[in-house]
Amino acid sequence: NAGVMQNPRHLVRRRGQEARLRCSPMKGHSHVYWYRQLPEEGLKFMVYLQKENIIDESGMPKERFSAEFPKEGPSILRIQQVVRGDSAAYFCASSARGDQETQYFGPGTRLLVL
Amino acid sequence: AQSVTQPDIHITVSEGASLELRCNYSYGATPYLFWYVQSPGQGLQLLLKYFSGDTLVQGIKGFEAEFKRSQSSFNLRKPSVHWSDAAEYFCAVGAGTNAGKSTFGDGTTLTVKP
């Protein structure tokens, strides 16, 4: 039973480019969460999605960041026109309906902006 | 708003010694509480969780945690630490209303001396 999968594991972008991070939830999970971890800090909530719906995006920066979880395929976190401050580890977690509180985390994508 | 404080940034213990990692939370209702462990370059692994019932919860890898409502604490313990326990530990509080969003502490780094 595969866990939460994220790709790529490492991503290098130059300032101004776009970054696309992918997350495939655990089988049977319909809830996806994205968190960001800056160096030496804990995880900060960004967005909570269900299939085709954004439930809570209170942690998302107002500009350049967007997320989707389409009916088919993985969830995507998209960062447009990246800046050096976007360099961080981005973690995806998933949970099952009826037990949204128990989240299972993927290995993360480490984004480096040059 | 919910918040989590992990007072100890870094703890060092000798192999075989006991361990206690502190966690204090702030939340207006009954909290959903979690402890996660993160090894370098890896994602987060759920150690244990508390939703309700018995305030002493058992987790994986020999860890346990005790919920103390009067102290707003959820400290993690292990009677005998192994070198492989060296990692970063995160306490988290969930919204408890099926909202799924978790708030994390900044983490405690555990070093194990031989």
What does this structure look like?
The complex is a heterodimer of chains A (114) and B (114). With 114 residues, chain A is mostly beta strands. Chain A has strands spanning 5-7, 10-13, 19-24, 31-37, 43-50, 53-56, 65-68, 75-79, 88-96, 99-105, 109-113. In chain A, the strands form 2 sheets. In chain A, strands 2, 4, 5, 6, 9, 10 and 11 form a 7-stranded mixed β-sheet that branches. Chain A has a 4-stranded antiparallel β-sheet with strand order 1-3-8-7, with no helix packed on it. The mean pLDDT of chain A is 92. Chain B has strands spanning 3-5, 10-14, 19-21, 24-26, 32-38, 44-50, 56-58, 64-68, 73-78, 87-94, 102-104, 108-113. The mean pLDDT of chain B is 91. In chain B, strands 2, 5, 6, 10, 11 and 12 form a 6-stranded mixed β-sheet that branches. Chain B has a 4-stranded antiparallel β-sheet with strand order 3-9-8-7, with no helix packed on it. A two-stranded antiparallel ribbon of chain B has the order 1-4. The chains are: A mainly beta (114), B mainly beta (114). The interface between A and B is medium-sized, with 28 and 26 residues.
